[in-house]
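User: You have something folded?
Assistant:
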Amino acid sequence: MSRVIALLPLLVLAACMAPGPQGGLRDPQARISSAVLFDPARFAGEWRVMAAPARACAGARQDWRWRDEDFALSGIDCTGPAPARLSGQALLVGPGARLVARGGYGGGPVWVLWVDQDYRVAALGTPEGGWAAVLARPEAARRADLIDAAREVLRFNGYDPQDLTW
């Protein structure tokens, strides 16, 4: 019994380092971080999906309404193989821009990996690597410089932007 107890910390550590799900979008060996300086009130509002795994999601609308402790989500959910109705909430759990979704985004953690200083374009992803997306405000959808920056942030966090539909 004492041998099992002694091995328990190693087993827990090994579970934390296990590779992501088969066919994931992210290299499980890469480091990942969320945006540190994040203002949920500025993030709130209408977004358009610029890139996501689901093929028919380009241009899909998402609304993130801030309610002082969580976001009310509506629009189109692009986390699955096909677009679906997005209706739920995302609770800010921190540090930084780390959220837990309920009723959307697969019900798991969603991190805002990066958002530009004017909150026009954002890169989002799940830490285990099963999903990532680039969102843009309707008026910023043609900002190639910001979209390219979001691609680079995805690469930096271990995602391959080529796995997304743009």
Summary: The first strand starts at residue 45 and ends at 51. The domain at 27-163 is CATH 2.40.128.20 (Lipocalin). The chain has one domain: 27-163.
